[in-house]
Amino acid sequence: MEETSQQIPQFGTAEFTPGNATRACASCRRPIDGDYFQINGASACPECARKIQALAPADSHAAYIRALAFGIAGAIAGFVVYVTFALLTGLVIGWVSLAVGFIVGKAMNFGSRGVGGRRYQITAALLTYLAVSMSAVPIAIHQMQQHKAEIQARETSAPPNAPGKVLKATGALILVGIASPLLDLQSPLQGVIGLVILFVGMRFAWRFTAGRRIVVSGPHNPSPAGVV
Questions:
Q1: Going by C-beta distance under 8 Å and a sequence separation of 6 or more, which residues neighbour residue 31?
Q2: Ranges assigned E (strand) in the chain
Q3: Is residue 157 situated within a structural domain?
Q4: Global pTM?
Q5: Distance of alpha carbon 155 from alpha carbon 50, whole angstroms
Q6: Which residues are 38's β-sheet partners?
Q7: Is 107 helix (H, G, I), strand (E, B) or coil?
């Protein structure tokens, strides 16, 4: 079965049959003789209006949970892409944030089957931010391992790490990861550019999870001349 978002016609302005002033349905293109409906401002016959209302994806708790699950998977995939690119190239380029936002937004839209709305958008933006910001943690760990000899030399004179210290260190890394886009402002120019690119990536995710809003009004009585 095809996705509902592909089955719903794109409605724009009202259309009329060539050569006369008869109102035509924007979906089936047949003339409308009697009452008509309007879908996103375009005229539609009653039969098409009923079909489109039935096909329109409806928001529900299940749709949101599916979108959230796919969004988390997309965020993890984006996180892996970001970290892998940084480790392989040795470069931390903020432009990868755009790919992360794209992946998260598309994943959530696919999971919800076209349903969108404000809660989907907020979730997508947050997942994009977390995926990008938390990528700083494995990158930092990798950089620390490159200086392993120096770290080991310091640890020889230090007491062994207790489990509590390990937990504190893990928690600190997580907090630093979440705040990493803001911490980058220590280098003002680079930090601002990174934040702007991250914002654009979040906007990608926001736009892809907006959903398709279908506004149906009617029935309307035609004017005497049969035109709008």
A1: 17, 22, 23, 24, 25
A2: 15-16, 23-24, 36-39, 42-44, 216-220
A3: yes
A4: 0.65
A5: 72
A6: 43, 217
A7: helix
pLDDT tens column, 191-215: 688 788 889 889 989 999 987 767 7
Q: Which residues contact 109 (CB under 8 A, 6 or more apart)?
A: 67, 116, 208, 209, 211
Nearest partner of 130 among 91, 179, 70, judged by Cα: 179
**Cross-strand partners of 43:** 38
Please count the helices (runs of H) and the strands (runs of E) in the chain: 9, 5
pLDDT the model gives residue 15: 47
pLDDT surpasses 80 at 110: yes
Contact at 8 Å (CB) between 52 and 39? yes
CATH code where residue 26 lies: 2.10.110
15 near 26, Cβ under 8 Å?
A: yes
Task: Give the DSSP letter of residue 31.
Answer: B
Residue at 228 is within a domain: no
Supply the range of the domain harboring residue 14. 4-56+213-220
Residue 226 falls within a domain, yes or no?
A: no
Backbone Cα Rg of the chain: 26
Per DSSP, the three-state class of 79 is helix
Confidence of residue 182 (pLDDT cuts 50, 70, 90): confident
DSSP state of 159: P
- Grade residue 141 by pLDDT with cuts at 50, 70 and 90: confident
Helix axes 118-134, 163-183, angle to 10 degrees: 110
